[in-house]
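Homework help board

Subject: predicted structure for assignment chain

Our instructor gave us this sequence and asked us to write out the predicted structure in token form, then describe one feature. I got the tokens but I'm not sure how to describe them. Can anyone check?
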Amino acid sequence: MKDALAKKIKSRKAVVGIIGLGYVGLPLAHSFAAAGFKVFGIDLDPQKAAAIRKGVSYIGDLTSAELARVTRRGRLEAGADFSKLAGCDAVIVCVPTPLNRFKDPDISFIVSAMDQVANFLHRGQLIVLESTTYPGTTEEVLLPTFEKKGLKAGRDFFLCFSPERIDPGNEKFKTRDIPKVVGGITPACTRLAAALYGAITPKVIEVSSSRTAEMTKLLENTFRIVNIGLINELAMAAKALKVDIWEAVDA
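My token output:
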């Protein structure tokens, strides 16, 4: 199973399904399509699917001209039909994970999407979660859902976490420029996900587990928000002191 899928990925014959066509999923779908893969994008919002079919981008980091190039070639299709997953060799889930009223992560969108994936799970398929979540989600929540189908991860199918690393509005670093982190349930899962993302990104970092990959994303987000909070407070202090904070930063 592993070798057959690896060959499909290397030859660009693997079909990729992407669930969730927002600011993460659509640029990702475009990247795979531009790299030569056949891509099915799935989103419950009919307006998004209609726009994609017309080659019209609703994401600032992806131009309509770029999107139209892959849709005209038939590389990217979009809709709300989850049965398309039955024909996919790899499925990547990029759905939102908002906080609930208790400030806990709401993984209901992940669970709902993965239930659909489980309905069409087949041997030799690679499943990757990109949605930000707590460490342990892939192993504790998703793995049991799939193994109920009688298939074994790392042998019959392959399951990984790879944190989304989109930087919206950044003109210098697009999806294709940002290294990816991958962590699988087994080493075979990790290697296959690394091969898949290696087709669209310059560097893939393999970590020891899906739990580590999930923690990587939380660490990155926390580091970013602490630094943003810090510079915002210093900017207010600098203003009171009649100091140009940007001159200080540059210095």
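Reply (TA_rk): Your tokens look well-formed. For the description, you could write something like this. The chain has a mean pLDDT of 95. That's the kind of observation they're looking for.
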